[in-house]
Design a protein that fits this description.
With about 325 residues, the chain is an alpha/beta fold. The chain contains twelve helices and eleven strands. The protein has helices at about 20-30, 40-45, 55-60, 60-65, 95-105, 120-125, 140-145, 195-205, 225-230, 240-250, 280-295, 295-305, and strands spanning about 70-75, 85, 90, 110-115, 130, 155-170, 190-195, 215-220, 235-240, 260-275, 315. The strands form two sheets. Strands 1, 4, 5, 6, 7, 8, 9, 10 and 11 form a nine-stranded mixed sheet that branches. The chain has a two-stranded antiparallel ribbon with strand order 2-3. Helix 1 runs parallel beside helix 10 (about 240-250), helix 5 packs across helix 11 and helix 5 runs antiparallel to helix 12. The radius of gyration is 19 Å and the shape is globular. The chain starts with 19 loop residues before the first helix and ends with a strand.
């Protein structure tokens, strides 16, 4: 997770302010009302209406065609990317896109909840066919490299890229303590979800702090827990992917709990992760995403959730760096 982005991702070596995505702030903040009301619930819509007969469907591995279900590992606590609505249905950007991809492929995208830092291992163990959870496509993830040690820890995964997002810092409303950049967090505490870009950025930036100060980090299984810690006064700041941070600022406490500070950093692609060696499934998903983009349904989905500025114009395989 901006990317739970990503982005929920391993940190890149450099941090650059985002230009075009900063403009997306106004778009997303005006679009973050209850988006679960006026469109089909993805918990239902992921069941395809017809059996896929497209070129993309023809690429699916035979065992998935026979099963009729693609099992999608996801940390379903990262609104607006994926979360449970008041009735318990799984909703958000990823479930909506999963519904559209499932229709194109003629299969059901079944989202299965798991903690973010276990999704890639779930792919390796074949518990999931895909991982779709605001996961940033990075070279480290593609190659199975631990970003902190630089050592190879797994086979890596392939990604079908579907959205671009940066990372934001937020604080309690009216209590920003002069925080504008990551450097301003030296000597302060940040609450973050474990294994995300925010977590790794905090570790990277803490090493740059001077004067005996560092960035204290409190990590949690999911972003909602980190946000609760910040709201209660247990931390000075939080950080998430920009769409998620903006959603929290707009919706938490009716907009009274949090505020964004500074600008987004590290624009990077979200990717649908596929285990290495599962080339037919990766190509089927890529082709299906291209078809959904061409049909206009992709544009309707990103507009529904207010993330048009992060839209892609075509499906790319392993576009992260």
């Amino acid at each position: 997770m901006t990317a739970h982005t990503t982005p929920r991702t391993a940190a890149h070596s450099g941090i650059a302010a985002i230009g075009t995505l900063v403009v997306a702030g106004a778009l997303l903040l005006t679009a973050c009302g209850d988006q679960t009301k006026n469109h089909p619930r993805p918990g239902d819509a992921t069941r395809p209406d017809t059996v896929g007969s497209s070129a993309a469907a023809a690429l699916l591995p035979p065992e998935i065609k026979a099963r009729g279900v693609i099992r999608v590992g996801s940390d379903i606590a990262y609104p607006p990317v994926e979360f449970k609505d008041t009735s318990g249905k799984t909703v958000g950007i990823d479930p909506d896109l999963g519904a559209a991809l499932g229709k194109e492929l003629g299969v059901t995208f079944r989202f299965e909840n798991g903690t973010f830092d276990t999704l890639i291992t779930g792919l390796r163990s074949k518990r999931y066919d895909l991982a779709m959870s605001a996961m940033t496509d990075t070279r480290n993830r593609q190659e199975g490299i631990d970003p902190e040690t630089g050592k190879k820890v797994g086979e890596g995964v392939d990604f079908v890229d579907y959205l671009t997002a940066g990372v934001s810092i937020y604080t309690r409303k009216g209590d920003d303590q002069g925080i504008r950049t990551w450097a301003d967090l030296c000597g302060k505490k940040i609450a973050v979800q474990r294994g995300t870009v925010s977590h790794n950025l905090a570790k990277t930036e803490s090493k740059k702090c001077t004067g005996g100060r560092s960035i204290a980090m409190e990590t949690f299984d999911n972003d909602l827990e980190a946000r609760t810690r910040l709201r209660s006064g247990g931390a000075d700041a939080g950080s998430s992917d920009f769409p998620v941070a903006a959603w929290a600022v707009k919706t938490s406490g009716g907009g009274k709990d949090f505020q964004l500070v500074g600008e987004q950093v590290q624009a990077a692609p979200y990717g649908i992760a596929v285990a290495k060696g599962n080339d037919r499934l990766a190509e089927a998903v890529r082709a299906a995403l291209d078809a959904v983009i061409r049909s206009g349904e992709y544009g309707r989905i990103v507009a529904r959730w207010g993330v048009e500025a992060g839209a892609v114009t075509g499906a790319k395989l392993n576009g992260g760096t």
